[in-house]
Design goal:
Structural class: alpha/beta
CATH architecture: 3-Layer(aba) Sandwich
Order of helices and strands: HEHEHEHHEHEHEHHEEHHH
Shape: globular
Largest sheet: 8 strands, mixed
Number of strands: 8
Radius of gyration: 18 Å
Distance between the termini: 33 Å
Helix content: 25-40%
Number of domains: 1
Number of helices: 12
CATH class: Alpha Beta
Length: 298
């Protein structure tokens, strides 16, 4: 599907409170075009809880339940059970959560909902930090990144939540980013047509937190994919297929230098040569693993 062929309906209205260049709003706008009006959002504490606009008005043109930081997936289980009891099979519960509320604070609720087989879509828009509360480190923050709680650079590598979710053996797991809206739209559309727990993680480069100019949001997301720092794939019933540019890398296309991506972000300005070597080592190791596991066998 070409961008010009996306549905014209808009479910993100004017007057929201997002920062200029906000990737979460771009992602949600595209996602709701795929999911449609019969979507019920469950939003934990996050940027999106603020983006909605000031009470009593809202810019989200679908029913929205705001819930505590750690409880989004548990609340979605309750919503799904309530809809089933009412015989409403045409309403889709969708969690829209940041990485702080997914990788860390909400992980136990997410795992529980997946294990119970909750019929919902869980979306983590990953900006690699607790952006709304002041740019603190999360489990998704990459090695070396500055945050207000890792002001000399984070010393640990981020975990891979999508791979943790894969271990729950659910029907659908996918990754996406705002740089490729057709890919995001198609994965959302595919998830909508399925039943059971579905998980989609979207890379969402944040201008204030990553320290880059707000006009570069989409470019930053695209470069993350082309350098291999972010991987695009989907798994249907556990079978993983790489998509888009990531598939080309898996098939042998050379990744763009990771330095091109790092130097555009103020959060990496302090990196030493040793730090960059460590980032490259980890990235090479990850892609070697992907090629062994999912590449073409000779």
């Amino acid at each position: 599907m070409a961008i010009k062929d996306l549905p014209l309906e808009e479910y993100i209205l004017k007057g929201h409170a997002a920062c200029p260049g906000c990737p979460a709003t771009i992602a949600l706008r595209t996602a709701l075009k795929a999911l449609g009006k019969n979507t019920m959002l469950i939003v934990p504490a996050s940027c999106s809880a603020v983006i909605q606009a000031l009470y009593p008005k809202t810019a989200f043109n679908v029913p929205t339940l705001n819930i505590a930081f750690e409880a989004a997936a548990a609340a979605a289980s309750g919503v799904a059970a309530g809809l089933k009891a009412q015989g409403k099979s045409d309403v889709l519960p969708v969690v829209w959560a940041g990485d702080g509320g997914s990788y860390d604070i909400g992980l136990q609720a997410l795992s529980g909902a997946l294990e119970r087989g909750t019929d919902f879509i869980y979306v983590c828009y990953n900006n690699q930090m607790y952006s709304n509360t002041g740019i603190q480190r999360s489990g998704a923050t990459p090695y070396g990144a500055w945050t207000t709680t890792t002001w000399t650079g984070k010393k640990e590598h981020q975990k891979e939540l999508a791979e943790i979710v894969l271990a729950h053996h659910i029907p659908y797991v996918a990754t996406a980013t705002i740089a490729y809206p057709e890919d995001l739209y198609n994965k959302m559309k595919k998830a909508k047509e399925m039943k059971g727990p579905r998980y989609i993680e979207i890379l969402a480069p944040c201008p204030p937190g990553w320290r880059f100019d707000m006009s570069k949001t989409v470019e930053m997301a695209e470069l993350a994919v082309k350098t291999g720092a972010w991987v695009l794939y989907e798994a249907i019933n556990g079978k993983i297929e790489f998509t888009g540019y990531s598939k080309r890398i898996l098939e042998g296309k050379e990744r763009e230098p990771i330095e091109n991506w790092l130097r555009m972000q103020g959060r990496f300005r302090h990196l030493t040569e040793e730090d960059i070597k460590e980032i490259k080592r980890r990235l090479d190791e990850k892609w070697e693993y992907y090629k062994q596991m999912y590449g073409k066998k000779e």
